[in-house]
User: Which sequence fits this backbone?
């Protein structure tokens, strides 16, 4: 089986054109044990300048390779420069722990870098050590940064506790990020999330605003628990139409 | 007419300003790193400020369909805090290569102290090493001599005048700046530095070559529509359209485009990845509000008033 790093290197190399020797030289430099962080900073800065910002535009076979290399890794909407940045980070062999390097990069990242850094989450070593950093990304007001974590990314499914998971779902609804692209959406729903979502729906109704239909499949497995059932009955009595439960 | 405001401190401005600028035709702007009014006393707060202008502010502008670029640098006022200055200088090279950084700036003199001189020179060297243009802030006080000295030092440090924008010019400084081959920026400030009408007179006298108009809008009394109003008044006053287009759009693009980080295609045909993430074209989003979508190219020029 090919590793995610090897796949990225192949995909980017194939798209690098005349910059391919530069790419290979840079990666060799980054792979040297104890390589200075400055080399990594320069590579991350030059990646879009040298390689461009086109879509990576992977084919179905590539995406199947990605899924085989890391379960549910979906780089379908990655860009060339973003993918190169993740590759640089995976290749870099510095002295500090990964999480410390990552924190430093995140602190000074521009918007596109931040998106790339977070899209790479499922591929990094010691994933649990990035707990704080992921929290910072989820709290970001930059919707695409939030979506870099929440969408087409198995990291939340695999590493979030219930509290963080639930608040990611709620924030997605709040900022208008789609729920559909969240990996593990249905399998990780839970009674507490159902309670939060019904409460959220009540607030939306009170404000005279529509309720996103996509939240109801997350509630329905718990529709018969007493608290949720009472809330739903009350909503029906008030004349609210909840499509998911129309029999 | 498409406009560029190459000097706007948007971190201090409201979303109303972004809406007004977009409606007036501003397609791109440059946010120079500067003093926030309140001095920073920790290197970390300066670092976070630089992160803000390469990250959050760029995103915020993109939501209004305006392309945001910035310059990074240690400004002349805070260069006088040596401990802070030393710390900032360590971080600057990392920020200089961020996406959308089009120059080192705004740097130069405030009170023309020895420390200001030291860090001005160090940053000129950094710009030269990285092949980046420089935005020079000329002092409010002792302006004429401060401007001449800024150019002397640029030349001493081996910079090509075509890579240097001397900003905040007035009638007294512009002649020398143009004669020595630099770009000459004019900040349109209500009632102080340079007004719309004075600017139009200068355009009639000097034409459009290497002249750049900006608003320099910030946390003080200033007008984010400075460029748009000047363009309108100039056209009404019979300044040729090609001149107006040069000073309110083309020259800024040519000068700062030398960084390789600012291209007309950024707003005319942005990469797909940017359209999905960082550049909303004409849609304006706010939590809880439905997006407002306009026809591309629709510019609401009505309602501009000239002071």
Assistant:
């Amino acid at each position: 089986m090919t590793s995610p790093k090897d796949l990225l290197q192949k995909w980017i190399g194939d798209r690098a054109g005349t910059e391919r020797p530069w790419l290979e030289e840079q990666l060799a430099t980054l792979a040297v044990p104890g390589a200075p962080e400055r080399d990594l900073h320069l590579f991350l800065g030059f990646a879009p300048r040298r390689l461009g910002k086109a879509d990576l535009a992977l084919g179905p076979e590539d995406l199947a390779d990605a899924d085989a290399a890391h379960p549910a890794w979906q780089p379908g909407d990655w860009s060339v420069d973003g993918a190169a940045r993740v590759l640089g980070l995976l290749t870099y062999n510095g002295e500090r722990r990964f999480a410390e390097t990552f924190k430093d990069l995140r602190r000074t990242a521009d918007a596109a870098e931040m998106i790339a850094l977070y899209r790479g989450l499922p591929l990094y070593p010691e994933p649990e050590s990035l707990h704080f950093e992921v929290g910072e990304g989820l709290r970001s007001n930059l919707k695409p940064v939030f979506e870099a974590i929440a969408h087409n990314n198995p990291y939340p499914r695999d590493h979030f506790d219930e509290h963080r998971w639930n608040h990611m779902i709620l924030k997605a609804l709040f900022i208008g990020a789609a729920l559909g692209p969240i990996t593990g959406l249905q399998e990780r729903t839970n009674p507490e999330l159902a309670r939060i979502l019904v409460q959220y729906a009540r607030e939306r109704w009170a404000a005279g605003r529509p309720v996103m239909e996509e939240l109801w499949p997350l509630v329905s497995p718990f529709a018969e628990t007493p608290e949720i059932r009472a809330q739903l009955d009350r909503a029906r009595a008030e004349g609210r139409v909840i499509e998911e439960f129309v029999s | 007419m498409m406009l560029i405001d190459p000097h706007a401190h948007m971190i201090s401005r409201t979303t109303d300003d972004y809406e007004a600028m977009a409606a007036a035709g501003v397609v791109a702007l440059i946010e120079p790193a500067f003093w926030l009014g309140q001095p920073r006393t920790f290197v970390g707060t300066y670092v976070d400020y630089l992160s803000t202008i390469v990250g959050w502010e760029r995103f915020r502008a993109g939501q209004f369909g305006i392309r945001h670029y910035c310059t990074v640098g240690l400004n002349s006022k805070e260069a006088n805090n040596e401990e802070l200055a030393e710390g900032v200088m360590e971080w600057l090279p990392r920020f200089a290569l961020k996406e959308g950084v089009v120059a080192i700036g705004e740097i130069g003199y405030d009170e023309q102290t020895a420390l200001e001189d030291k860090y001005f020179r160090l940053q000129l060297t950094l710009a030269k090493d990285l092949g980046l243009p420089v935005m020079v802030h000329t002092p409010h006080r002792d302006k004429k001599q401060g401007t001449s000295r800024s150019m002397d030092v640029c030349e001493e440090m081996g910079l090509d005048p075509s890579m240097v924008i001397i900003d905040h010019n007035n009638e007294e400084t512009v002649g020398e700046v143009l004669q020595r081959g630099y770009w000459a920026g004019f900040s349109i400030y209500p009632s102080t530095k340079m007004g719309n009408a004075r600017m139009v007179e200068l355009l009639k006298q000097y034409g459009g070559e290497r002249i750049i108009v900006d608003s320099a809008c910030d946390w003080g009394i200033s007008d984010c529509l400075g460029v748009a109003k000047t363009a309108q008044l100039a056209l009404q006053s019979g300044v040729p359209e090609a001149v107006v287009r040069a000073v309110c759009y083309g020259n800024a693009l040519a000068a700062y485009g030398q960084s390789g980080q600012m291209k007309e295609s950024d707003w005319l045909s942005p990469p797909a990845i940017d359209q999905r993430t960082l550049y909303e074209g004409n849609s304006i989003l706010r939590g809880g509000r439905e997006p407002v979508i306009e026809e591309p190219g629709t510019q609401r020029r009505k309602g501009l008033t000239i002071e």
Summary: The first helix of chain A runs from residue 4 to 15. DSSP finds 14 helices and no strands in chain A.
